[in-house]
Amino acid sequence: MNIQRFSRLLNVSAHTIRYYEKIGVLRHVARNASGHRFFTSKDLDWMAFVQRLKDMGMPLDKIKHYADLREQGDVTAELRKQLLQEHVALIEAKIALETEHLEKIKDKILYYDQLIHQAVKA
């Protein structure tokens, strides 16, 4: 598929795709006879994973590091696993903190519900 279709499927600009290729996050992109990029379903799967990491807040330099390790093959499986585990731990800590904030806000809403209910009774 060409870069326009690829970018549409991923909901990412062609500029971003070219940038990811330039910095080495996206590698080994095939070219057609005219020299235009030609993307495969494997490229699509990889970029969907990259997007998931970005959406989860993984910095681009860490994603690049993961891509570098991936390029080296199965010998780096443990390092890639560790990188993902570290990121999962960060996400879990953020979720725990956000959950705590959410509970405090819900407590405040309950307080206001009680305050308003008392004012209506008076």
TrEMBL record:
SUPFAM superfamilies (alphabetical): Putative DNA-binding domain
The record, for SMART domains, names: HTH_MERR
Report the GO molecular function annotations: DNA binding; DNA-binding transcription factor activity
| Assigned keywords, A-Z | DNA-binding
**Pfam families assigned:** MerR_1
PROSITE patterns for the chain: HTH_MERR_2
The transmembrane segments are none
Q: Which residues form the HTH merR-type domain?
A: 1-69
The record's annotation in InterPro entries points to: DNA-bd_dom_put_sf, MerR-type_HTH_dom, MerR_fam
The entry's protein name is: Transcriptional regulator, MerR family
The organism's lineage? Bacteria, Pseudomonadati, Pseudomonadota, Gammaproteobacteria, Oceanospirillales
